[in-house]
Amino acid sequence: MTKLHGWLAAVLLTAAALPAKAETLDLNINDDAVFGQFSGPLSHVFNNADGEYQLGGLYSDDKNLSLTNLHAGFMLSGDAGAQEAKLTAGIGLRGQYTDTKVDTGGGAAIGGQFDVRFAGFDRLGFQGYVWYQPKVLGLGDIDSQLDWALTADYQILRNAAVYLGYRKVRIDSSKNHGNYTADDGAIFGLRLTF
Fold first, then answer.
1. How many CB atoms lie within 10 A of CB 109?
2. Can you give the pTM of this predicted structure?
3. Any residues with CB less than 8 A from the CB of 154 and at least 6 apart, and which?
4. E strands of 80-177, at which residues?
5. DSSP class of residue 158?
6. Which of 84, 92, 126 is nearest to 109 (CA)?
7. Tell me: the pLDDT tens digits for 76-123?
8. Are 113 and 124 spatial neighbours (Cβ–Cβ below 8 Å)?
9. CATH topology of domain 3-193
């Protein structure tokens, strides 16, 4: 898959998500990859639900192994009860499709995320997520997949933040490719809330 196909997939994801009343646009890049995600209150999809929906995609040609990962999911989230900080956390499910030069598959992933901000300096935050697709929930050539990231952001405005972090996508192939890293590295991003 060429970079043009990756960018085309990102544009199509963007267009598909717009009617869904997305409230947050998260974009990040590094030398080899581009990631985009729309998310918003789950109550826009299910009445009175407390959480968020997510639609997104990742394209990477890291280490000469092109990767396309498209996902749609939801998380139930809320205050995690930290005393000296504002800590929100969520757990949820997402459906995903993954295509590399050597494997194609998909399935359901379980995961979680967190965002922590400290009293007195809440413009600085730390975030992380992890999504794991076990073999029993997978389809195609991919037995399992692990996708995680850690970031630190600074809110330039209350509705616009920049961040730095690290992301890794690890795949376990059902073919003879074994375990391999499909994407990893430092990321630079921007989150815009509408």
1. 24
2. 0.85
3. 123, 124, 125, 161, 162, 163
4. 85-100, 104-118, 121-133, 138-140, 142-157, 160-173
5. T
6. 92
7. 988 888 888 899 999 999 999 999 888 899 999 999 999 999 888 889
8. no
9. Porin (2.40.160)
Residues 6+ apart with CB under 8 A from 52: 39, 40, 41, 42, 74, 75, 77, 90
Query: d(Cα 127, Cα 60) in Å, to the nearest integer?
Result: 22
Residue 74 CA to residue 85 CA, distance in Å, equals: 25
Give which of 19, 23, 89, 16 is closest to 56, Cα–Cα: 16
Q: CA nearest 122: which of 81, 87, 80?
A: 87
State how far the Cα of 130 lies from the Cα of 144, in Å rounded to an integer. Answer: 13
Within 10 A of 26 (CB to CB), how many other CB atoms are there?
Answer: 20
CB count, 10 Å around CB of 71?
A: 20
The number of C-alpha atoms within 13 Å of 98 and in the hemisphere containing its C-beta is 33
